[in-house]
């Protein structure tokens, strides 16, 4: 199963003495968007797994602007337990940003990102922690099977990873989602990456350190429906490509180059027709040549400018990634307000 992972990135042995704390605290970050049907169940199973494994843990639920009863349920969950924090965002910012908010607030020695719908089995977390104890900084779950998902979803997901891997500068492990454990130093690195268009799984790969894969079987959604319609999947794919690649911009220059080459053929043809044959229209040659040349050159210049503008555009937006409506939890959790 390990062959789904990328060589070079993978199975780099952890440091001999990773210096992991003796009794670590594990933060579990759960982004939730309209998950009223599952959230209580998820919490029960998650808390049970973590306590049974004898882990010292905190669970951070991020309510990503849900419009159903999710926030109410989270409030209840929080009130019943000391080690629960709830961050409510001011509106729906999307899965990736909600997870980022959770990472910002996580205080543990390692952070686990997990979906709220129980598609990622919480039972894998103790194994992730074991890998982390061996010295790995990022332990990412690799889906060996995906139960209960339409063949369309599977096909688009596969296309998504292949496309990103072709275009992107960072190799993205195939079939790895966001279910992963991240050591606090990698989390620290992620916190410094404030880009607006984010694909966390690619960003955690970019961070480097010691990474390893952990195969698991992805189950079907416990209840409720997917919050990732095709539109959001396409947006996510675009983020993955544009944030980690300038190939689309180069494509413009490439098209310009092809057009210029075609223009050259046209130019040769026009000049030959003018000099060697009798079939030419007076004044046509120069017009033909200049319009072809200008057209081609414009594309090249546009491409070059696009290259720069794309970079400036990415840097220029200094907006906060998310806004917090309220934070529920123990005082020391609420005091963690970061960034
Ligand atoms: N999610 C979120 N904000 C959104 C969409 C989704 O926080 O705008 C959460 C959702 O509650 C779930 C996780 O992200 O915990 C993954 O979403 P979903 O299960 O709908 O995606 P799928 O598994 O179908 O790809
Ligand atoms: Mg899901």
From TrEMBL:
GO annotation, cellular component aspect: plasma membrane
Keywords: Cell membrane, Glycosyltransferase, Membrane, Transferase, Transmembrane, Transmembrane helix
Matching SUPFAM superfamilies: Nucleotide-diphospho-sugar transferases (SSF53448)
Gene3D superfamilies per the UniProt record, alphabetical: Spore Coat Polysaccharide Biosynthesis Protein SpsA, Chain A (3.90.550.10)
Domain Glycosyltransferase 2-like: 27-187
Domain of life: Bacteria
Topology in the lipid bilayer: Multi-pass membrane protein
Keyword Ribosomal protein included in the entry's annotation: no
Subcellular location: Cell membrane
GO terms of molecular function: glycosyltransferase activity
TM region(s), chain numbering: 251-272, 284-309
Family to which the UniProt record says this protein belongs: Belongs to the glycosyltransferase 2 family. GtrB subfamily.
Name of the protein in question: Glycosyltransferase 2-like domain-containing protein
Species of origin: Ruegeria meonggei
